[in-house]
Amino acid sequence: MALRNIFLQNEPSLRKICKDVTSFDIMLGQLFDDMHETLALACGVGLAGNQIGILRNICILHDGSTRLEFVNPKIIRMEGEAIDTESCLSCPGEYGKVKRPQMVEVAAFDRNGKPFSLVLKDLDARIICHETDHLQGRLFKDIAFDLQKVS
Ligand code: NI
Predict the structure, then answer these.
(1) Which of 2, 30, 52, 55 has the least CB density, counted as fewest CB within 10 Å?
(2) Of 74, 58, 92, 87, which Cα lies nearest the Cα of 129?
(3) Annotated domain spans of the chain
(4) What are the tens digits of pLDDT across the range 55-75?
(5) Strands 82-86, 115-121: parallel, antiparallel or unpaired by DSSP?
(6) So what's the pLDDT on residue 1?
(7) Are 17 and 138 in contact (CB under 8 A)?
(8) CB atoms within 10 A of CB 34
(9) Fold category of 12-149 in CATH
(10) Is 139 helix (H, G, I), strand (E, B) or coil?
(11) 48 C-alpha to ligand 1 centroid (Å)
(12) What element of type H or E holds 30?
């Protein structure tokens, strides 16, 4: 495993739309392992491929001891609304309130190419929405209000 650099918001890759993964090979597994290590060290809760310069449609989520991986994630259902504070490893020191669904259902593939779907609520729903936004080249601050910068 290896740590990856987390790109900051001025990097062009953060504004790119990531391409679907078509090859579920050993490199993909290594990439996920690296992403988990990188995210854990950064004490973050989510990481998308383009945040480490990989323009592939992949992201991960850490919520306590729960570690989830998504390849080609698509939000297929959303319910409710919740407003809460968000930040982003690519935008250090910036915080803002973002309205997200309270619940989402996500369809994706695992690292071996097996399809699955998962219902996520509250913080986990917020994280996966934040990460799928990244994969579309969007940052939370694009849609945040009460944006604050702490230096
Ligand atoms: Ni982020």
Answers:
(1) 2
(2) 74
(3) 12-149
(4) 999 999 999 989 999 999 999
(5) unpaired
(6) 76
(7) no
(8) 17
(9) Peptide Deformylase (3.90.45)
(10) coil
(11) 7
(12) helix 26-41
Q: How far is the CA of 123 from the centre of ligand 1 (A)?
A: 14
For tokens 């409710």, what's the residue?
80
Model confidence at 151, pLDDT cuts 50, 70, 90, reads confident
SS3 140: helix
Catalytic residue numbers read: 131
CA of 44 relative to ligand 1 center, distance in Å: 9
Q: What is the pLDDT of residues 121-150, one digit of tens each?
A: 999 999 999 999 999 999 999 999 999 999
Ligand 1 centroid–CA 46 distance in Å is 7
115 pLDDT more than 90: yes
Neighbours of 135 (CB within 10 A): 24
Looking up tokens 């250090």, which residue turns up?
A: 92
